[in-house]
Amino acid sequence: MTHLDMPATLQLVVAAFLLIGALVALIGSWGLAKLPDFYTRLHGPTKASTLGVGCTLIGSLLFFSHQQDGVSVQEALVTIFLFATAPVSAHMLGKAALRRRLKGVPGTRNMPDR
Amino acid sequence: MTPPLRSRQFWLPHPLFSLFLTLLWLLMVNDLSVAHALLGLALGVAIPLVTHAFWPEEAKIRRPLPLLRYLGVLLVDILRSNLVVALRILRPARQLRPGFFTYPLALEDDFAITLLASTISLTPGTVSLHYDNEANTLLIHALHLEDEAEAIATIRTRYEQPLEEIFR
Predict the structure, then answer these.
(1) Same domain, B17 and B43
(2) Which sequence ranges are marked TM in the entry (chain B) (predicted)?
(3) Which residue range(s) make up the domain with A50?
(4) Is B74 helix (H, G, I), strand (E, B) or coil?
(5) How many beta-carbon pairs below 8 A join chains A and B?
(6) Average pLDDT of the segment spanning B10-15
(7) Nearest residue on chain A to B93, judged by CA atoms?
(8) Strand pairing category for B99-104 and B126-132
(9) What is the pLDDT of residues B18-60, one digit of tens each?
(10) Residue of A56, A64, A91 to mutate when probing chain B, most B C-beta within 10 A
(11) B142 — phi, psi (to 5°)?
């Protein structure tokens, strides 16, 4: 293992963020695989993955801000772009599904009949 | 439609957006040198100029302070929504009660509606699917819909009213 010139507490914090991020992203992907229909699956990528990537980015931000001079701000930009684009793609996917009249899981309330 | 060639309207149609693009460029290259500031400024002027034709009418942010508060609320709600959705995913699918509901919009401004729709998609258990231009409604899918009226009321007080305040 390469030697890291970094305080142990900071290493722990970075590791914690990376682990939480990975766990949340895993749950999101799990949801994508197991949720019953297209519309419920949409919820995985818009939510769980944003927090998953967010946590990973905070870990990265802390790590690189320590390793390099000054604060690393590119991660913040990635987060902003992600939050701006994820809802739009979910909206377009959902719209396409509605157009194609994809069926919701039985028991879905107020299923649009268009 | 096109403003005269020598006016500010032509060269700087969206001054705030130009500033935003310049800052964005500086943050992206992670380098605060004069050269990059100039390049950023050039981009900040060029991009709005070229894309001007595609812009909808400009939304005016009337009050910046409520906007900041709104962003704060949004951040907390994104965290909450992640937990809520993660729990729903881990529980058995039989317990899910997914459903659609129509949300009657009070907002009129395109940009504000876009913000609201994005907010709905990022916050607990809801994704906006369709915007009906004529009826001015949003079709929303909820991962777990218990009380339609309550869901609508939450969106109204938590997100739409602050947005109205910002863009009024």
Answers:
(1) yes
(2) 12-30, 37-55
(3) 8-99
(4) helix
(5) 124
(6) 69
(7) A35
(8) unpaired
(9) 888 888 888 887 777 888 888 888 888 888 778 777 776 666 6
(10) A91
(11) -110, 135
* A13-41: burial string, b at 16+ Cβ within 10 Å, e else: ebeebbebbeebbebbbebbeebbbbbbb
Residue B1 lies in a domain: no
**Residues of chain A contacting B102 with CB distance shorter than 8 Å:** 110
**B59-110 residue pLDDT tens:** 666 677 878 888 888 888 888 888 888 888 887 777 777 778 888 888 777 7
Write out pLDDT tens, residues B138-149: 788 888 777 777
pLDDT band at A19 (very low <50, low <70, confident <90, very high): very high
Residue B99 touches partner A, C-beta closer than 8 Å: yes
Q: Is the pLDDT of residue B5 over 80?
A: no
Shortest distance, CA A3 to any CA of chain B (angstroms): 26
* ipTM of the complex, rounded to two decimals: 0.71
Q: Which residues span the domain enclosing B32?
A: 8-54
Give chain A's length: 114
Which residues 63-102 of chain A have a CB within 8 Å of chain B? 72-74, 76-77, 83-84, 86-88, 90-91, 94-95, 97-98
A108 lies in a domain? no
At A16, the pLDDT band (50, 70, 90 cuts) reads very high
The closest of A75, A71, A68, A103 to A18, measured between CA atoms, is: A75
- Under 8 Å between Cβ of A24 and A52: yes
List the single best residue of A27, A37, A47, A93 to mutate versus B (max B Cβ within 10 A).
Answer: A47
Q: For residues A82 and A25, is the Cβ–Cβ distance under 8 A?
A: no
Cβ separation of B127 and A30 shorter than 8 Å? no
Q: Is A95 contained in some domain?
A: yes
**What one-letter code names the amino acid at B160?**
E
